[in-house]
Amino acid sequence: MTVWDEVVGQPAAVAELSAAASDSAAMTHAWLFTGPPGSGRSVAARAFAAALQCPQHGCGECASCHTVLAGTHSDVREVVPEGLSISVRSMRLLVQSAARRPATGRYQILIITDADRLTENAANALLKSIEEPPDQTIFLLCAPSDHPEDVAVTIRSRCRPIPLRSPSAAAIADVLVRRDGIDPETASWAASVAGGHVGRARRLARDPAARAHRELVLGLPMRVRSLGDAFTFAGDLVRDAKAEATELSESRDAAEREELAVAMGAGGTGKGVAAAARGAKAAERDLERQQKSRNTRTQRDALDRALVDLAGFLRDALVVGSEAQVPLTHPDRDADVRRAATDWSPESVLRRLEAVLACRTALDQNVKPEIAVEAMMATLQRG
Q1: Measured between alpha carbons, how far is 96 from 79 in angstroms, rounded to an integer?
Q2: What is the pLDDT along the chain (383 residues), one digit of tens a residue?
Q3: How far, in Å, are 113, 133, 303, 305, 346 from residue 298 at the CA level?
Q4: What is the 3 state secondary structure string of the chain?
Q5: The pTM is what?
Q6: Which end is more exposed in the chain, N or C (fewer Cβ atoms within 10 Å of the end residue's Cβ)?
Protein backbone atom coordinates (compact mmCIF):
# COMPACT_ATOMS: atom_id res chain seq x y z
CA MET A 1 0.00 0.00 0.00
CA THR A 2 1.52 3.33 -1.09
CA VAL A 3 0.64 6.92 -0.31
CA TRP A 4 -1.18 7.12 -3.64
CA ASP A 5 -3.84 4.72 -2.35
CA GLU A 6 -5.11 7.70 -0.34
CA VAL A 7 -6.03 9.52 -3.58
CA VAL A 8 -9.41 8.26 -4.82
CA GLY A 9 -10.30 8.09 -8.52
CA GLN A 10 -7.54 10.36 -9.90
CA PRO A 11 -5.31 8.14 -12.09
CA ALA A 12 -4.01 10.95 -14.34
CA ALA A 13 -3.06 13.21 -11.42
CA VAL A 14 -1.43 10.32 -9.54
CA ALA A 15 0.66 9.40 -12.57
CA GLU A 16 1.91 12.98 -12.99
CA LEU A 17 2.65 13.51 -9.30
CA SER A 18 4.34 10.13 -8.91
CA ALA A 19 6.61 10.84 -11.86
CA ALA A 20 7.55 14.27 -10.50
CA ALA A 21 8.29 12.89 -7.01
CA SER A 22 10.73 10.33 -8.41
CA ASP A 23 12.44 12.67 -10.88
CA SER A 24 13.99 15.82 -9.42
CA ALA A 25 14.38 17.26 -12.92
CA ALA A 26 10.58 17.24 -13.29
CA MET A 27 10.02 19.07 -10.02
CA THR A 28 8.81 22.65 -9.69
CA HIS A 29 8.61 24.73 -6.54
CA ALA A 30 4.88 25.58 -6.64
CA TRP A 31 1.83 23.42 -7.46
CA LEU A 32 -1.87 24.23 -7.66
CA PHE A 33 -4.38 21.45 -6.98
CA THR A 34 -7.86 22.32 -8.25
CA GLY A 35 -11.11 20.40 -8.33
CA PRO A 36 -14.69 20.37 -7.05
CA PRO A 37 -15.47 19.87 -3.34
CA GLY A 38 -14.80 16.29 -2.33
CA SER A 39 -12.36 15.58 -5.14
CA GLY A 40 -9.54 15.19 -2.62
CA ARG A 41 -7.40 18.27 -3.27
CA SER A 42 -5.77 18.34 0.16
CA VAL A 43 -5.48 14.53 0.25
CA ALA A 44 -3.60 14.57 -3.07
CA ALA A 45 -1.36 17.41 -1.86
CA ARG A 46 -0.60 15.52 1.37
CA ALA A 47 0.18 12.31 -0.53
CA PHE A 48 2.49 14.25 -2.86
CA ALA A 49 4.25 15.81 0.13
CA ALA A 50 4.78 12.33 1.59
CA ALA A 51 6.17 11.08 -1.72
CA LEU A 52 8.57 14.03 -1.88
CA GLN A 53 9.93 13.29 1.60
CA CYS A 54 10.00 9.51 1.18
CA PRO A 55 13.33 7.87 0.18
CA GLN A 56 11.33 5.53 -2.09
CA HIS A 57 9.02 8.29 -3.37
CA GLY A 58 5.81 7.28 -1.62
CA CYS A 59 6.18 3.75 -0.26
CA GLY A 60 3.53 4.35 2.41
CA GLU A 61 5.48 2.31 4.98
CA CYS A 62 8.43 4.45 6.10
CA ALA A 63 8.53 6.99 8.92
CA SER A 64 8.45 9.92 6.48
CA CYS A 65 5.25 8.69 4.81
CA HIS A 66 3.54 7.98 8.13
CA THR A 67 4.43 11.31 9.73
CA VAL A 68 3.46 13.40 6.69
CA LEU A 69 0.09 11.65 6.34
CA ALA A 70 -0.48 12.00 10.09
CA GLY A 71 0.39 15.72 10.00
CA THR A 72 3.39 15.43 12.35
CA HIS A 73 6.38 15.73 9.98
CA SER A 74 8.70 18.53 11.09
CA ASP A 75 9.29 19.78 7.54
CA VAL A 76 5.68 19.75 6.28
CA ARG A 77 3.32 22.50 7.41
CA GLU A 78 -0.34 22.48 6.51
CA VAL A 79 -2.50 25.60 6.61
CA VAL A 80 -6.14 24.70 7.33
CA PRO A 81 -8.08 27.97 7.79
CA GLU A 82 -10.57 27.65 10.61
CA GLY A 83 -12.05 31.11 10.12
CA LEU A 84 -13.38 32.95 7.11
CA SER A 85 -9.98 33.84 5.65
CA ILE A 86 -6.20 33.43 5.92
CA SER A 87 -4.66 36.62 7.29
CA VAL A 88 -1.51 38.30 6.03
CA ARG A 89 0.10 37.97 9.48
CA SER A 90 -0.31 34.21 9.62
CA MET A 91 0.87 33.82 6.02
CA ARG A 92 4.03 35.85 6.64
CA LEU A 93 4.90 33.68 9.65
CA LEU A 94 4.33 30.49 7.68
CA VAL A 95 6.33 31.68 4.69
CA GLN A 96 9.23 32.60 6.99
CA SER A 97 9.21 29.20 8.65
CA ALA A 98 8.99 27.44 5.28
CA ALA A 99 12.12 29.27 4.12
CA ARG A 100 14.30 27.41 6.64
CA ARG A 101 16.45 24.48 5.68
CA PRO A 102 14.78 21.08 6.13
CA ALA A 103 15.44 19.47 9.49
CA THR A 104 14.99 15.82 8.55
CA GLY A 105 13.42 15.65 5.09
CA ARG A 106 14.42 16.50 1.54
CA TYR A 107 12.23 19.65 1.38
CA GLN A 108 10.41 22.22 3.44
CA ILE A 109 6.80 21.89 2.22
CA LEU A 110 3.94 24.33 2.84
CA ILE A 111 0.43 23.01 2.05
CA ILE A 112 -2.35 25.63 1.85
CA THR A 113 -5.60 23.65 1.78
CA ASP A 114 -7.92 26.57 0.99
CA ALA A 115 -5.89 29.04 -1.06
CA ASP A 116 -9.14 30.71 -2.17
CA ARG A 117 -9.46 32.09 1.38
CA LEU A 118 -6.23 34.09 1.20
CA THR A 119 -6.86 37.78 1.73
CA GLU A 120 -5.35 40.10 -0.88
CA ASN A 121 -2.45 41.01 1.40
CA ALA A 122 -1.88 37.38 2.36
CA ALA A 123 -1.80 36.41 -1.32
CA ASN A 124 0.77 39.14 -1.96
CA ALA A 125 2.94 37.87 0.91
CA LEU A 126 2.80 34.36 -0.57
CA LEU A 127 3.50 35.66 -4.08
CA LYS A 128 6.82 37.19 -3.03
CA SER A 129 8.05 33.78 -1.86
CA ILE A 130 6.76 31.96 -4.94
CA GLU A 131 8.47 34.53 -7.21
CA GLU A 132 11.79 34.04 -5.40
CA PRO A 133 11.49 30.54 -3.93
CA PRO A 134 13.98 29.50 -1.26
CA ASP A 135 16.06 26.43 -2.04
CA GLN A 136 14.42 23.16 -1.00
CA THR A 137 11.03 24.80 -0.37
CA ILE A 138 7.87 23.54 -2.09
CA PHE A 139 4.46 25.26 -2.07
CA LEU A 140 1.34 23.12 -2.56
CA LEU A 141 -1.85 25.19 -2.98
CA CYS A 142 -5.39 23.80 -3.10
CA ALA A 143 -8.41 25.68 -4.45
CA PRO A 144 -11.81 24.93 -6.05
CA SER A 145 -10.63 26.22 -9.43
CA ASP A 146 -7.95 28.34 -11.10
CA HIS A 147 -10.44 31.13 -11.76
CA PRO A 148 -9.16 34.58 -10.70
CA GLU A 149 -11.89 34.74 -8.06
CA ASP A 150 -10.35 31.70 -6.37
CA VAL A 151 -6.63 32.17 -7.04
CA ALA A 152 -4.92 35.37 -8.12
CA VAL A 153 -3.61 35.24 -11.67
CA THR A 154 -0.14 36.23 -10.49
CA ILE A 155 0.03 33.20 -8.18
CA ARG A 156 -1.66 30.81 -10.60
CA SER A 157 0.78 31.66 -13.40
CA ARG A 158 3.71 30.58 -11.24
CA CYS A 159 2.21 27.22 -10.22
CA ARG A 160 2.10 23.90 -12.04
CA PRO A 161 -1.58 22.90 -12.27
CA ILE A 162 -2.96 19.56 -11.11
CA PRO A 163 -6.66 19.42 -12.05
CA LEU A 164 -8.75 16.85 -10.20
CA ARG A 165 -12.22 15.55 -10.96
CA SER A 166 -15.06 14.18 -8.85
CA PRO A 167 -14.37 10.47 -8.28
CA SER A 168 -16.94 7.95 -9.46
CA ALA A 169 -19.42 6.38 -7.06
CA ALA A 170 -17.75 3.00 -7.62
CA ALA A 171 -14.33 4.38 -6.64
CA ILE A 172 -15.77 6.01 -3.51
CA ALA A 173 -17.61 2.85 -2.49
CA ASP A 174 -14.46 0.80 -2.98
CA VAL A 175 -12.39 3.00 -0.69
CA LEU A 176 -15.13 3.06 1.98
CA VAL A 177 -15.15 -0.74 2.06
CA ARG A 178 -11.42 -1.30 1.69
CA ARG A 179 -10.02 1.46 3.89
CA ASP A 180 -12.83 2.30 6.31
CA GLY A 181 -14.32 -1.15 6.83
CA ILE A 182 -17.87 -0.08 5.94
CA ASP A 183 -20.21 -2.83 4.75
CA PRO A 184 -20.63 -2.91 0.94
CA GLU A 185 -24.36 -2.10 0.90
CA THR A 186 -24.00 1.01 3.07
CA ALA A 187 -20.88 2.08 1.19
CA SER A 188 -22.64 1.74 -2.18
CA TRP A 189 -25.62 3.79 -0.99
CA ALA A 190 -23.46 6.53 0.59
CA ALA A 191 -21.29 6.79 -2.53
CA SER A 192 -24.35 7.06 -4.78
CA VAL A 193 -25.83 10.04 -2.89
CA ALA A 194 -22.65 11.94 -1.97
CA GLY A 195 -22.28 13.77 -5.29
CA GLY A 196 -18.69 12.65 -5.79
CA HIS A 197 -17.62 13.89 -2.33
CA VAL A 198 -15.53 11.28 -0.51
CA GLY A 199 -15.74 12.95 2.91
CA ARG A 200 -19.50 13.41 2.60
CA ALA A 201 -19.94 9.74 1.68
CA ARG A 202 -17.85 8.64 4.65
CA ARG A 203 -19.87 10.86 7.02
CA LEU A 204 -23.22 9.57 5.72
CA ALA A 205 -22.04 5.97 5.99
CA ARG A 206 -20.84 6.37 9.57
CA ASP A 207 -23.11 8.97 11.20
CA PRO A 208 -26.85 8.28 11.73
CA ALA A 209 -27.39 11.95 12.65
CA ALA A 210 -25.99 13.04 9.26
CA ARG A 211 -28.34 10.64 7.49
CA ALA A 212 -31.32 11.92 9.49
CA HIS A 213 -30.46 15.54 8.74
CA ARG A 214 -30.15 14.77 5.02
CA GLU A 215 -33.60 13.15 5.04
CA LEU A 216 -35.04 16.23 6.74
CA VAL A 217 -33.46 18.63 4.25
CA LEU A 218 -34.48 16.66 1.16
CA GLY A 219 -38.06 16.51 2.40
CA LEU A 220 -38.35 20.31 2.57
CA PRO A 221 -39.20 21.11 -1.08
CA MET A 222 -42.40 19.03 -0.95
CA ARG A 223 -43.34 20.10 2.59
CA VAL A 224 -43.27 23.89 2.19
CA ARG A 225 -46.93 24.60 1.48
CA SER A 226 -47.44 28.07 3.01
CA LEU A 227 -45.42 31.16 3.76
CA GLY A 228 -45.63 30.24 7.43
CA ASP A 229 -44.01 26.90 6.63
CA ALA A 230 -41.25 28.72 4.77
CA PHE A 231 -40.32 30.85 7.79
CA THR A 232 -40.64 27.92 10.20
CA PHE A 233 -38.42 25.62 8.17
CA ALA A 234 -35.91 28.43 7.55
CA GLY A 235 -35.60 28.92 11.28
CA ASP A 236 -35.15 25.19 11.77
CA LEU A 237 -32.33 25.03 9.23
CA VAL A 238 -30.44 27.93 10.78
CA ARG A 239 -30.92 26.64 14.33
CA ASP A 240 -29.67 23.19 13.33
CA ALA A 241 -26.57 24.72 11.75
CA LYS A 242 -25.90 26.84 14.85
CA ALA A 243 -26.40 23.84 17.12
CA GLU A 244 -23.96 21.75 15.08
CA ALA A 245 -21.38 24.55 15.13
CA THR A 246 -21.80 25.01 18.88
CA GLU A 247 -21.47 21.30 19.55
CA LEU A 248 -18.27 21.10 17.53
CA SER A 249 -16.80 24.25 19.06
CA GLU A 250 -17.65 24.10 22.77
CA SER A 251 -15.14 21.54 23.98
CA ARG A 252 -12.40 22.83 21.68
CA ASP A 253 -12.97 26.45 22.69
CA ALA A 254 -12.83 25.56 26.41
CA ALA A 255 -9.60 23.60 25.96
CA GLU A 256 -8.00 26.49 24.06
CA ARG A 257 -8.99 28.98 26.75
CA GLU A 258 -7.56 26.74 29.45
CA GLU A 259 -4.30 26.26 27.53
CA LEU A 260 -3.99 30.02 27.07
CA ALA A 261 -4.61 30.68 30.76
CA VAL A 262 -1.89 28.22 31.75
CA ALA A 263 0.52 29.66 29.19
CA MET A 264 -0.09 33.18 30.53
CA GLY A 265 0.64 32.14 34.13
CA ALA A 266 -2.85 31.79 35.58
CA GLY A 267 -2.70 31.17 39.32
CA GLY A 268 0.91 32.27 39.57
CA THR A 269 2.42 34.65 42.12
CA GLY A 270 5.30 37.04 41.96
CA LYS A 271 6.35 40.35 40.50
CA GLY A 272 5.54 39.49 36.90
CA VAL A 273 1.95 38.37 37.53
CA ALA A 274 0.36 41.80 36.95
CA ALA A 275 2.18 42.32 33.65
CA ALA A 276 1.30 38.79 32.55
CA ALA A 277 -2.36 39.42 33.40
CA ARG A 278 -2.42 42.50 31.17
CA GLY A 279 -0.90 40.52 28.32
CA ALA A 280 -3.38 37.71 28.94
CA LYS A 281 -6.33 40.04 28.36
CA ALA A 282 -5.10 40.96 24.89
CA ALA A 283 -4.39 37.31 24.08
CA GLU A 284 -7.86 36.35 25.28
CA ARG A 285 -9.46 38.91 22.97
CA ASP A 286 -7.46 37.57 20.01
CA LEU A 287 -8.50 34.01 20.86
CA GLU A 288 -12.16 35.03 21.17
CA ARG A 289 -12.05 36.63 17.72
CA GLN A 290 -10.49 33.49 16.23
CA GLN A 291 -13.05 31.24 17.89
CA LYS A 292 -15.95 33.42 16.76
CA SER A 293 -14.67 33.36 13.17
CA ARG A 294 -14.25 29.58 13.32
CA ASN A 295 -17.75 29.13 14.72
CA THR A 296 -19.19 31.28 11.92
CA ARG A 297 -17.30 29.22 9.32
CA THR A 298 -18.57 25.95 10.85
CA GLN A 299 -22.16 27.23 10.85
CA ARG A 300 -21.92 28.31 7.21
CA ASP A 301 -20.41 24.97 6.22
CA ALA A 302 -23.31 23.15 7.87
CA LEU A 303 -25.82 25.35 6.05
CA ASP A 304 -23.97 24.92 2.78
CA ARG A 305 -24.22 21.13 3.00
CA ALA A 306 -28.01 21.47 3.29
CA LEU A 307 -28.10 23.88 0.33
CA VAL A 308 -26.03 21.54 -1.83
CA ASP A 309 -28.49 18.72 -1.06
CA LEU A 310 -31.44 20.96 -1.99
CA ALA A 311 -29.76 22.03 -5.23
CA GLY A 312 -29.17 18.38 -6.08
CA PHE A 313 -32.85 17.55 -5.51
CA LEU A 314 -33.99 20.35 -7.81
CA ARG A 315 -31.43 19.39 -10.43
CA ASP A 316 -32.85 15.86 -10.32
CA ALA A 317 -36.36 17.24 -10.90
CA LEU A 318 -35.10 19.01 -14.04
CA VAL A 319 -33.38 15.82 -15.21
CA VAL A 320 -36.54 13.73 -14.77
CA GLY A 321 -38.76 16.41 -16.32
CA SER A 322 -36.56 16.59 -19.41
CA GLU A 323 -36.27 12.79 -19.61
CA ALA A 324 -32.49 13.05 -19.76
CA GLN A 325 -30.69 9.73 -19.44
CA VAL A 326 -28.19 10.73 -16.72
CA PRO A 327 -27.77 9.50 -13.13
CA LEU A 328 -29.69 11.29 -10.36
CA THR A 329 -27.86 13.07 -7.57
CA HIS A 330 -30.25 11.54 -5.03
CA PRO A 331 -31.38 8.21 -6.52
CA ASP A 332 -32.95 7.15 -3.21
CA ARG A 333 -35.41 10.10 -3.47
CA ASP A 334 -36.72 9.01 -6.87
CA ALA A 335 -40.42 9.12 -5.86
CA ASP A 336 -40.27 12.69 -4.50
CA VAL A 337 -38.19 13.84 -7.47
CA ARG A 338 -40.73 12.49 -9.95
CA ARG A 339 -43.58 14.08 -8.02
CA ALA A 340 -41.80 17.45 -8.11
CA ALA A 341 -41.15 17.08 -11.84
CA THR A 342 -44.85 16.37 -12.39
CA ASP A 343 -46.27 19.06 -10.08
CA TRP A 344 -43.92 21.90 -11.05
CA SER A 345 -43.17 23.37 -14.46
CA PRO A 346 -39.49 23.45 -15.58
CA GLU A 347 -39.53 27.25 -15.14
CA SER A 348 -40.75 26.86 -11.56
CA VAL A 349 -38.05 24.29 -10.77
CA LEU A 350 -35.41 26.63 -12.22
CA ARG A 351 -36.64 29.52 -10.07
CA ARG A 352 -36.36 27.32 -7.00
CA LEU A 353 -32.88 26.17 -7.99
CA GLU A 354 -31.76 29.75 -8.62
CA ALA A 355 -33.04 30.69 -5.15
CA VAL A 356 -30.89 27.97 -3.54
CA LEU A 357 -27.80 29.08 -5.47
CA ALA A 358 -28.53 32.73 -4.61
CA CYS A 359 -28.70 31.76 -0.94
CA ARG A 360 -25.24 30.18 -1.15
CA THR A 361 -23.90 33.35 -2.76
CA ALA A 362 -25.54 35.54 -0.11
CA LEU A 363 -23.98 33.53 2.71
CA ASP A 364 -20.55 33.88 1.06
CA GLN A 365 -21.13 37.64 1.02
CA ASN A 366 -21.85 37.72 4.78
CA VAL A 367 -25.61 38.18 4.53
CA LYS A 368 -27.24 37.22 7.84
CA PRO A 369 -28.12 33.49 7.59
CA GLU A 370 -31.71 33.97 8.76
CA ILE A 371 -32.43 36.52 6.02
CA ALA A 372 -30.74 34.53 3.24
CA VAL A 373 -32.44 31.25 4.15
CA GLU A 374 -35.87 32.84 4.63
CA ALA A 375 -35.66 34.43 1.17
CA MET A 376 -34.77 31.07 -0.32
CA MET A 377 -37.55 29.21 1.49
CA ALA A 378 -40.11 31.79 0.38
CA THR A 379 -39.17 31.08 -3.24
CA LEU A 380 -39.30 27.33 -2.64
CA GLN A 381 -42.87 27.79 -1.40
CA ARG A 382 -43.93 30.18 -4.15
CA GLY A 383 -42.12 28.58 -7.09
Answers
A1: 14
A2: 789 988 888 999 999 999 999 887 667 899 999 998 888 899 999 999 999 999 999 998 999 999 999 989 999 988 877 666 788 888 888 888 877 888 888 899 999 988 888 888 888 988 888 888 888 899 999 998 888 888 888 999 999 999 999 899 999 999 899 888 999 999 999 999 988 888 889 999 999 988 998 998 999 999 998 999 999 999 988 988 888 777 766 666 666 666 666 666 655 555 555 555 555 666 677 767 776 777 777 788 889 889 999 999 999 999 999 998 888 999 999 999 999 999 999 999 999 999 999 999 999 888 999 999 999 999 999 88
A3: 16, 34, 9, 11, 34
A4: CCHHHHCCCCHHHHHHHHHHHHCHHHCCCEEEEECCCCCCHHHHHHHHHHHHHCCCCCCCCCHHHHHHHHCCCCCEEEECCCCCCECHHHHHHHHHHHCCCCCCCCCEEEEECCHHHECHHHHHHHHHHHHCCCCCEEEEEEECCCCCCCCCHHHHCCCEEEECCCCCHHHHHHHHHHHHCCCHHHHHHHHHHCCCCHHHHHHHHHCHHHHHHHHHHHHHHHHCCCHHHHHHHHHHHHHHHHHHHHHHHHHHHHHHHHHHHHHCCCCCCCCCHHHHHHHHHHHHHHHHHHHHHHHHHHHHHHHHHHHHHHHHHHHHHHHHHCCCCCCCCCHHHHHHHHHHHHHCCHHHHHHHHHHHHHHHHHHHCCCCHHHHHHHHHHHHHHC
A5: 0.78
A6: N
